[in-house]
UniProtKB/TrEMBL annotation:
Entry membrane topology: Multi-pass membrane protein
UniProt keyword annotation of Nucleus present: no
Provenance organism: Flavivirga algicola
Region called Disordered, residue ranges: 86-120
Localisation per UniProt entry: Cell membrane
Segments traversing the membrane: 6-24, 58-76
Keywords in alphabetical order: Cell membrane, Membrane, Protein transport, Translocation, Transmembrane, Transmembrane helix, Transport
Protein name as it appears in the record: Protein-export membrane protein SecG
Amino acid sequence: MSTFTIFLALIVVVAFLLIVVIMVQNPKGGGLSSSFGGGGTQQLGGVKKTTDFLDKSTWTLATLLLVLILASNVAINRGGENVDSKALDEDAATTTPALPAPLPATNDAATATPADSTAN
């Protein structure tokens, strides 16, 4: 298992968790975050603390997702080939591509125009 595969799996997990945390939030306090615990007086930590936790977890997961995406770019296996631009290669810029050979000229009746055949 390569490092890039591990980063990709972590990115998928963090993205899923971020989606769940964002969907649970409601800015007016009436979403799923306020219904944890069933009753209004028996809520775990209260609505305010739940909102603070969800807000902090959203920022944490978003930051973690960004870091994982940037780190996965470093871990991509490029196959050991040179990934520099061909436009910057000095050897390629000085050589000209070979032109195709010209077609041979033929003088047969099929290529003659009607104007040529009637002008006697």
